Amino acid sequence: MINEGFGVTSMDAQGATGTVKVIYTIIKRRDVQQVVGIIKRFNPKAFYSIEEVRSAGEGIFPTGKQGLIKNFPNFFRLVRPGK
Fold it and tell me: What is the distance between the alpha carbons of residues 6 and 17, in angstroms, rounded to a whole number?
């Protein structure tokens, strides 16, 4: 189902009301709307933040849309009940 090709890193964290999952991804500006659409499709109430990255290195960067996110289909699922 998800085969958009964005690489992600995730970690479990503690939010104000319970366990949450923090997800990081570095994308091109032109892909912001697509990624926000993916987030909203899986969790319409998800909190997300968009920041400018000046440089990134020493990671795994897809050379195209290779489907890296497909290995993490539940990342955007609601981990705890929303308010």
Answer: 29
